[in-house]
Specification:
By secondary structure, the chain is of the alpha/beta class. 40% of the residues lie in helices and 13% in strands. The protein has one domain: 3-Layer(aba) Sandwich (Rossmann fold), CATH 3.40.50.10140. A four-stranded parallel beta sheet has the order 2-1-3-4, with helices on both faces. Helix 1 packs across helix 5. The radius of gyration is 16 Å and the shape is globular.
Length: 167
Amino acid sequence: MGQGQGGKVGLAKLPSTKALKLFVSYNHLDAQYKDDLVKHIDPLKRLKLIDAWFDGKIQAGKNINEEILAELACSDIILLLVSIDYLNSYYCVEIEMEKAMERHEAGEARVIPIILRSCMWQHMPFSKLKALPLDAKAVSRWADRDEAPVSIAESVRAVADDLLANR
């Protein structure tokens, strides 16, 4: 726990609303980037703002496709972790990204492209959306390994605050 002024331990005021569901769409070849980002987003779970989900949370014996589509269908925020491997994945682009963009266009969810590695993402349907991190500079190009995920987590928090304020 952190200490506030005067050495007293304090907690940020927690919102009373239910946490937003966050879906992480990624290619398994980018799992390390996904893991780093989820670590930086996890404090938002403690604040009851975000409950992040990715396919690693699917239980044994469950239908993978059905679980992914069900989670995607009820998520409030959808992160697209973009790399050349993501763009070359049929499932990522034709299933997850397409469903995410449909929900975004319908006003049912907010899609946020996260540029992990340099690639030709500017020609994709999500290119009209503001991408993260700052100036859409690929996460892999940041000198400090934590700087980009922190910037992304701060932006995700701002989106969560905005969505919760407009519920």
